[in-house]
Amino acid sequence: MAEVERGSWGGQLEFILTCVGYAVGLGNVWRFPYLTFQNGGGAFLIPYILMLILLGIPVFFFEICLGQFASLGPLAIWNLSPLFKGVGVAMMSVGLMVALSYCILMSYILFFFFASMGPLPWKDCANSWNTNKCITSNIFANSTLLEQIIKDRNITRAEIKTPSEEYFYNQVLKSSSGLDEPGGIVWQLALCLLLAWVIVFVVLLKGISSLGKVVYFTSTFPYIMMTVMLVRGATLPGASKGIEFYLKPDIAKLKESSVWSDAASQIFYSLSTCTGGLIAMASYNKFKNNTFRDSMIVPFINCGTSLFAGFAIFSVLGFMAKEKGVEVSDVAATGPGLVFVVYPEALSRMAGGTVFSILFFIMMLTLGFSSLFSMVESFFVMLMDEFPDTLRCNSTRPIIFRGVCIVIFYLISLPMVTKGGFYLFSLVNEFAGGFPRLITGLFELLVVTMVYGYSRFAEDISLMIGKKPGIYFQVTWCFLSPLLIVVSN
């Protein structure tokens, strides 16, 4: 039976938009702005841009060249050195863990999106899930009243919870006391998770031929929403204070090694390198596609998006700080705490909060799905390229394979939507996004440059783009990038 052809992108723009959608994700909104604020404000841009030049762009260019030349997924490509095929297996494993945890986040965002359709349920403390520790943010500005409430309720300041905090942990997650108490499945989250996986299946039904069309929307629409949120945030009282906290430079911070380590890890995290996705997406390029051009466009768009998102986030945090009568540093947060606790609280306090809440979570949905689609497709590509005779033997086999995988992924994800599931999700998310990714990146560079040979790889690249990589790429691939990966650990 004839093997179905792999296919290719409908045009160069499809590949670029897919890479932008893959790289620009939730981390650009909830991780970069906080790291900038925490690591010296505007001064953090110095190590960040240096790491982009010495680590981000070289590794990005390296991976898309590797995928484009071989026209194979991140597993089959290691036939170049079969002894190190474990690097491909590691990439596949890490990429799958990232995808599974990402889909859990999408279930949370879907939950909040649907909840935003009516009066915002996290606006006050008059709900069945609230406790006597719940105090609305407007009370914080009146210290006398706040102290009286604390005294009357026999609680401490440290025990105070906001309505959005109790909504997320008590109503959305129905969180237990720990991982040792998993509890039952939270069916509302399980349904949202099912919807998320169904959306992924529908979009990836025909592989890159369907994904390449969807990215025209998912990779561009978030910028419209981000601009709307920035304009709204900039008109709020206290916005300028938030932006000042975001970018005010503290040069002394550059003396701290953690600042440079954070810059390196953020570059790795935000460009979505070393999980096989870029190799998989590039494997569908035309052989003569200009990979150098693409490796300049995508990383700079990604970094610009991170910086832009910071203005949208911190303008609203400045408003929140003014409302509560506290410093911006007291309301700033990173990760899920920003998206599901702090920002929703701010949205509930502003005029037209329901509308802007819907817009915000639409933005988060498109950002998240644009990354998730590429993550999952990369996994499919890895296995289909490794077992083409089985998985590409006819036109229906890839669809069946994708459907079976999606069902398995959903079942594997279910423990993370139990009452103790958030703790499991946090473990998976922390593990997949950290050390393993850096290790796969290190071995990837070392194997290709030292075992396969830098000279051979440079010749391969010259066949595609007409010239060999310059001294900049030779130094970064063979020395600086591996060194920075080791040091950042």
Automatic annotation (TrEMBL):
Report the locations given in the UniProt record.
Membrane
Pfam families from the entry? SNF (PF00209)
Q: Which PROSITE patterns match?
A: NA_NEUROTRAN_SYMP_1, NA_NEUROTRAN_SYMP_3
The record's annotation in InterPro entries points to: Na/ntran_symport, SNS_sf
> Per UniProt, what is the membrane topology?
Multi-pass membrane protein
Q: List the disulfide bonds.
A: 125-134
Gene Ontology MF term list: amino acid:sodium symporter activity; metal ion binding
- Name the SUPFAM superfamilies on file: SNF-like
Q: What is its main location?
A: membrane
Return the similarity comment: Belongs to the sodium:neurotransmitter symporter (SNF) (TC 2.A.22) family.
Protein's name according to its UniProt entry: Transporter
